[in-house]
Amino acid sequence: MNVRRSAAALAVVGVLAAAAPATAAGPSPSPKGAIPSGLYGTSDPTYDGVWRQSLTLIAQRTLGYEPAAKAVDWLAGQQCANGSFAAFRADPAKACDSKVMVDTNSTAAAVQALKAAGGHDDAVGKAMTWLKSVQNKDGGWGYAPGGASDTNSTSVVIGALTATGTDPAKVAKAGKSPYDLLAAMAVPCDRTGGGALAFQPDKKGELLANADASAAGVLGALGKGFVTTAGKAPGSTTCVLGKHLTPAQIADNAGANLASVVAKTGHLTSTLPGAMDQPDYGNTADTVVALAADGRVTQALQSYTWLENNALKWAEQSGPAAYAQLILAAHAVGAQPGDFGGTSLVRSLNAQGPAPSMPSTGHETKKKSDGNSSFGLWWFVGVCLVAGIGIGFLLSGRKKQQP
């Protein structure tokens, strides 16, 4: 993860760490005050309250649940009058002022959650108006309004645009769309990590491959949000050269590179300080979703299986955002989140806050026929192969991938 040294850096670290913590080395920090009754999780929500609530509601809706009204109302109540969201507002009755650090990531995530929950069209519309107003001239978005554009922030905003039925290609500033920003962040094929996406250019203007950004960027380039399933044939395993890459080429290049990174171990490795050779569970879950969206089902399944065998302790310690990420990864590859290595991600997530209404789809009660949740998934891969869709295997490698 490329951490920006700015006034917003602490908030960036908090939000992204909540979405994808690198390790399971200890519980989350205790809250400074009482946790609001509608908010999921028990840890300090200062840096991730809106983010974790949004992922929770999205995961519940993906499973067919009707989120609890007070959970949705809590999220909607976090919105500022101008339509934006901050990571957390302890006193939402107090008007937002210049001291409230609003950001694009919380706002775009809240849009996707409120749109999925339904009944908050006004809030969604105001949030989208604000997001469009803070688009940068390069077509992208930074974490904080006015900040330099980055791949992750731009991609989560693309997810919000798509969720509200807006074509990202038609949302432009100074003639450039979000896809132009993603193209500008693509590492050239002849460089280390070619095909991957950078978070931002470094101080020298160089693009350094970043797996976290690549996972986000694959979804962004495909015009997708947090929720996706495998639905396309895998792209080429060869990095496509060109100065004017199409969104599909950006996604395929990044997907191919990302799959090569996890091919050996099945997971990403944390780049956070002090996390020597430790798995990055959250970004691995995001990678599963990205690879599935890009049609690279074989590698997505291998990484999901690794998560199923290794990520439960991380989720238990990290809370609702982690459970939601694993549920979305399961959904992307067609797995049963009600049986994740013998544990129900669904019950675990729903126990973190107000209970949602039961779904009618049977996600929670459906059992595996042979005791191995991967069986049905690999059957699906076989069907794809028989149908001639094919599965891409990656030949490219890279050195140090993440700054």
From TrEMBL:
Query: Signal peptide location in the record?
Result: 1-24
Q: Does the keyword Membrane apply?
A: yes
Look up keyword Ion transport and say if it applies: no
SUPFAM superfamilies given for it? Terpenoid cyclases/Protein prenyltransferases (SSF48239)
List the CDD domains.
ISOPREN_C2_like
Q: Which residues form a coiled coil?
A: none
| UniProtKB keywords | Membrane, Signal, Transmembrane, Transmembrane helix
The record's listing under InterPro entries reads: Terpenoid_cyclase/PrenylTrfase (IPR008930)
> Which protein are we looking at?
Squalene cyclase C-terminal domain-containing protein
Q: Which organism is it from?
A: Streptomyces broussonetiae
- Lineage of the native species? Bacteria, Bacillati, Actinomycetota, Actinomycetes, Kitasatosporales
